[in-house]
Amino acid sequence: MAGASIRTAEPPELTEFAIGIARGAAGALLFGIPMLMTMELWQLGFYIERYRLFVLLLLNIPLLILLARMIGFERTSTWREAYRDAMIAYALGVVMSAAILVLLGDIKPDMPFSEMLGKIAIQAVPASIGALLGRSQFGDKADTSDEEDKNSDVDENDPVEGQLSTRYSRELFLMAVGALFLNLNVAPTEEVILISYRMTPWHAFVAILLSIAIMHGFVYAVSFRGTHEIPDDTPRWHVFFRFTLPGYVVALIVSLYVLWIFGRLDHTVPTQMLMSTIVLSFPGAIGAAAARLIL
Question: What single string gives the DSSP state of each residue in 169-211?
Answer without folding.
Answer: HHHHHHHHHHHHHHHHHHTTSHHHHHHHHH--HHHHHHHHHHH
